[in-house]
Amino acid sequence: MIAENVTNFQSRLRLACNRAGRSGDDVTLVAVSKTFGAEAVRGAFSAGLADLGENYVQELTTKRAQLADLPLRWHFIGRLQTNKVRALVDFIHLVHSVDSFRLAAEIDKRAGSIGRTIDVLIEVHTTDEPTKSGVPPGEVRELVKRISSLSSVRVQGLMTMGPFSDDPDDSRPSFRTLARLAREIEGEGIEGVSMKKLSMGMTHDFEIAVEEGATILRIGTAIFGERKKKQGVHV
Ligand SMILES: *Cc1c(COP(=O)(O)O)cnc(C)c1O
Fold first, then answer.
1. Quick one: how far is CA 221 from the chain centroid?
2. Rounded to an integer, what distance in angstroms lies between the CA atom of residue 223 and that of residue 235?
3. Which of 44, 57, 98, 190 is the S-S candidate for 120 at Cβ 3.0 to 4.6 Å?
């Protein structure tokens, strides 16, 4: 079933890229495996996906241990507490959800102590919903500047989530805001900072994200199926 889901998703993605006049070569698909077990991840890997996303540290480290035989790239996409950074620092490929200097400084300290440099995205709060995490758009530039002084953390771009809505078009303003911010910050030429990665778009709104310039899509449901309801829409 997962192989079929991946094939179907990839044809939708190809169509979306065509409509947007994009080749798709610069779009990375991160398969969000939260709540699904190691066997599901094996299915995704067999279908050609090697980038996996998780939003709980414990769940991620357990699954990773069960999948140590596969060359997977793990992405952290959830709220990250500073006291959990240590558990991720020796292997994490990209942290999508940095939303404070304090968190960046902790990643820097832990990464520096083992001689790694960790790529991060700044999570931006682009809706007016009070519950979402992320930095307000007006504070992103200052935060990026401060983080750019850290030697073991490298800002590679921005991440956001669209609003809770059944209508994918409702996500467009969020995605536009993210793309515009990235262009503005890129234009400042802050040393050591890149704005090339735009992590935006989930199962219900990835086509809009592609139109608005996403380079990383975080896709769970379309690949693994529906999650158990108690987890909520975005969890
Ligand atoms: C769960 C989750 C996703 C994937 O959501 P789907 O709608 O299942 O594709 C993407 N991003 C984040 C931050 C998530 O928590």
1. 15
2. 16
3. 98
Beta bridge partners of 217: 29
pLDDT tens-place string over residues 178-211: 999 999 999 999 999 999 999 999 999 999 999 9
Please report, for residues 90, 119, 173, the alpha-carbon distance to residue 49 in angstroms, rounded to integers and kept in the order given. Answer: 22, 20, 29
Q: How many CB atoms lie within 10 A of CB 37?
A: 13
- Which ligand 1 atom is at minimum distance from the Cα of 203? 9
Beta strand 94-98 pairing with 73-76: parallel
C-alpha–C-alpha distance, residues 232 and 235, integer Å? 5
Q: Which atom, in ligand 1's list, is nearest to the CA of 204?
A: 7
For residue 164, the tally of other CB atoms under 10 A from its CB is 13
Q: Is 55 touching ligand 1 by the criterion CB < 6 Å?
A: yes
pTM, rounded to two decimals: 0.96
